[in-house]
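hey so i finally got around to running both of the ones u sent me last week. sorry it took forever, my laptop kept dying halfway thru and i had to restart like 3 times lol. anyway pasting them below in the order u listed, first the sequence line then the structure token line for each. didnt double check formatting much so if smth looks off just lmk and ill redo it

first one:
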Amino acid sequence: MQTVALGRTGEQVSQLALGCMLMGTMTDEESSYAMLDRYLDAGGTFLDTANCYAWWPGPPFRGGESESLLGRWFARSGRRDQVFLATKGTAWVADPAAVLDGRVRAPHGYSGAGADTVRRELDDSLRRLGTDHVDLYYVHVDDHSTPLEETLESLAGLVTAGKVRYLGWSNVHTWRLESIRQLCDRYGWPAPVALQQQHSYLRRRPGVDHSAIVDDEQLDYLRAHDDLTLVAYSPILKGSYDDATKRREHPVLDPYRGADSTARLAVLDAIAAELDVTPNQLVLAWLLHQDNPTLVPLIGPRTLPHYEAALPALDLKLTPDHLTRLNQTTA
């Protein structure tokens, strides 16, 4: 597995990140350990989790399961120093039952990015992970109700304390990202070096306001700021490229539906057939070929077969003709 630069930090991370969201809940412990071991053995280094992973499978899960499993795996394997470890805070859900039964909508149930919350949640994450620091700490969901200065100053304190090496932001509009960077520059606070957003081959429909999905403006912003690396989550849109039913019905496709996506899916299917690969694998390979801006696809396999199915993308070489056809297709 090759590596890519993380902004201008001097750090190199593996070109494919492993999302641990379902480990300890929908992915059992034995399968999780096997996946982690295989990923590192293949040269992977970049692990991603969050404190709220994963409450949504329902009782008895409340969040923290993924971090706790990673902590047990670190203790068992002794491989903490071999990974670049990212986790997130600010989207902890105190009452999952209230969200699951519809009494509270999830954004209003999030813990938010107040200074005390940021500090407490990181300490809780470190305890579960069994480590004294994380390499990358994200604000998981942008919190408009807390002054950015309060959040950024508290994050700077975590870096100064050695509990966090680098900072990131997720699910954020470009204008907010620019405000964050300007405040960091003004006060000398450490700025985010990673931006984690949903990004895939399909493009969201014009007019859809969705802070979590990369649009053309955000791509242009990232091209102009190479100190910020895009970490692309849900790169295969929950496996929808390989599944005709999901293509028709899964809500993850709702922001993308339209003539542009229909045209891009048609060329994707044609090239996948030519190369004898799955559409999911081709999408991952296409993302791995992107270098303007640099990005890191983040896969979140639920099972070992899902993980193994992603690996051929690492060795899939696309020709200039393939890339031109994929890039230029539009409705």
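and the second one:
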Amino acid sequence: MMRIFSFDESYLNSSSSDISSRASSQSTTTINDYRNQSSGTQASESESAGIFEDHPGLNPNDERIIELQCEIREKLQELMINRSEDAVLAAAEGLHAESDNVPFMQSILDDLNRNGVQGEAYREALDLAQLVPSPLDQFSILPLIPMKMGNLSFSFTNPSLFMLLTLSLFLLLLSFVTKKGGGKSVPNAWQSLVELLYDFVLNPVNEQIGGLSGKVKQKFFPCILVTFTFLLFCNLQGMIPYSFTVTSHFLITLGLSFSLFIGITIVGFQKNGLHFLSFLLPAGVPLPLAPFLVLLELISYCFRALSLGIRLFANMMAGHSLVKILSGFAWTMLCMNDLFYFIGDLGPLFIVLALTGLELGVAILQAHVFTILICIYLNDAINLH
């Protein structure tokens, strides 16, 4: 189906014969060819004119058209993280249709930059390239406030927005509890919720970290409580429709796990000094096996931080992807306008509801498991063997 945009006046005013003649005269030259040709600044004007002989819709003297085509393709490649190069190229060429209307192409690029996978241009590109929307599109990172310094990007993205929103919700919850100097003797609903979270985290800290007095354990409790609350709010917030699951990205969970693990290692050296290295060699090991066991224990110790981040990321991403797939299947059956499919849609719909409830439980469980493992690793670093 040919795509029509209201702001492409030249396309609307052209006749069907002009459109068909233009389509038949186009060759198989790709955007990469245009980019390579535009980068050759030493080429003469007569040589560059030959590039556009088979492309009457392009102006050989307007480099902006080539730049926009390249930028559209690069942006689609950034959004279609799980697509092949050929699929991205087909989507880009179908989207801009080698148009010579600069405002039209600029509007496409603006829509891709502003709305990303939720925009009309992205959906149009998928339709023109005959691509099925991926359930992983919900995890795409979109720059809301682009900021670049050389090759480095410091853009304010949707994960940044939702992490700030999570922090704001947590501080707002505490403000309800601590306003007017503290809690009430008869707790209200908000105070009861905070006290429940406090006791829920305090019990694992007391159970898993042994050999220390209660006052010493309180040094580690605030960090563990904030970690648990942050993960809990991020996981639950991701269950809200049209929101973003921060913990579904590996870099975020890996950064959190490695930063905590580095802190645990520093605590171990502060508590035990160089004797902390004896953690890598269990007691009673034969001397010939010591080098191998030290290497294995060191690898195992480093992989704790890696597995801590992977576990949280994989559970959240897999659960949300499964809910997305089954929700799309249920919605497709519901839109078939057939009584048989409408009745059959009850099965997938109930499965989606059940999975949603399961994901709520997984969101709470993964935050708790992350906290428990932090307590166990902290106990190993303090008490060694």
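quick thing i noticed on the 2nd:
The longest strand covers residues 143-145.
anyway thats it, ttyl
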